[in-house]
């Protein structure tokens, strides 16, 4: 038996053989994911037939039968597909609106500055992230506002001393000093009642008020730029201004509201809850209408705000209420032991939130935050009801031009708008997915 058994024992290691061709590559992926079972195979075939049935007419309309060149509506009338010549002719208006042609270099400069700041910020390995954040949140907004509007804004005040002093920069300076003093007094009073150190709170608020004063002085400097009213803004410029401002402003406001709603101080908790529930219970259209039409009725005589500024404030406050509930869900997901461990280390409330609780909660709610940002980006189209022509509003207005009016002009414009919005929203969702995977590596 031993002699016979030895004939089945090999004295050499066989070389590794490649896997079967039908189990690797594209074929292997399709067999594993699309045709693994008879039911999956049937569903794959049905969906493939549906996609071909739906996509083929779209490709034929947008590419095969489309018109790519022309100078007026005659080119669109002779076409059975999309009229991209109309989009090409109106593309500058879709981007800049009615911004003066000879001043559009200022908008281009702002776009370039935004890209220069965003690219290194979105790449994790690029160093000096703190300087990049300072550039995006402090330098870029000031420079962009001066470039887009022209600067040289003269503030005269009128909130407290309207009936005492004539309009002048001095009156505004005095009113700003009054407001600053009231805020510092309120911060000190709040710190004493809550048992927090007064010195740190007052110093922080003083630095903030000082920075605001410097920014206001810069806004009043004459840089020699031609003033451009926001009524002449439009297109993609307005869409990005409303969306970016709403995103940047709503995130910190949402964090403060979420912390306030979970606070142990009854007044802060009640105020945060009322703010969140009121703003979440009102449609965004109503908020924009109130900010544009009703708000000026409640302001003192002589005090006015730009229509775009009112829309920005309304959008930021509206989005902050939804952001607060998203972040509150992340705060509730943190185990209680994290809070107790931070207190055991002797950390203060804000140190605990900044170093332990908020980083974990924000990582958990990344999908919700990005979902809110995407919804906000698409909701910017609602500003047309208050007379601001954003990207979609500019397309709707241009479709009524008699020079390009045709049966396919409006449809072509809506397809182009859908493609642009999809590109922005899809990019945000993909980058959010990348960030979520990168931050979740330590928990796998």
If you had to describe this structure to a student in words, what would you say it looks like?
The two termini are 52 Å apart. The chain is globular and about 95 Å long. Among the domains are: 153-220, no CATH class; 236-388, MetI-like (MetI-like fold), CATH 1.10.3720.10. Helices cover 69% and strands 0% of the residues. It is mainly alpha-helical.
H/I helix tally: 18
CATH homology superfamily of the domain at 236-388: MetI-like
- Give a count of the beta strands, DSSP E runs of length 2 or more: 0
Distance between the termini: 52 Å
Q: Write down the overall geometry.
A: globular
Mean pLDDT: 83
| Approximate helicity band | 55-70%
Which structural category fits the helices and strands?
mainly alpha
- Beta fraction: under 5%
Give the H and E element order: HHHHHHHHHHHHHHHHHH
Q: Briefly, what CATH class of the domain at 236-388?
A: Mainly Alpha
- Rg over CA atoms, rounded to whole Å, is 29 Å
Major pleated sheet: none
Going by CATH, the architecture of the domain at 236-388 would be Orthogonal Bundle
What is the CATH topology assignment of the domain at 236-388? MetI-like fold
Tag the structure with descriptive keywords.
MetI-like fold; 0% strand; globular
Short description:
The chain has 444 residues and is mainly α. The protein is 69% helix and 0% strand. It is globular.
Which helices and strands occur, and which strands form pairs?
Elements: H1 2-6, H2 25-33, H3 38-64, H4 73-77, H5 84-96, H6 104-122, H7 129-149, H8 169-194, H9 198-219, H10 236-261, H11 266-280, H12 284-298, H13 307-333, H14 336-344, H15 349-364, H16 366-379, H17 391-398, H18 409-439
Helix pairs in contact: 5-17, 6-7, 8-9, 10-11, 10-13, 10-16, 11-13, 12-13, 13-15, 13-16, 14-15, 16-18, 17-18
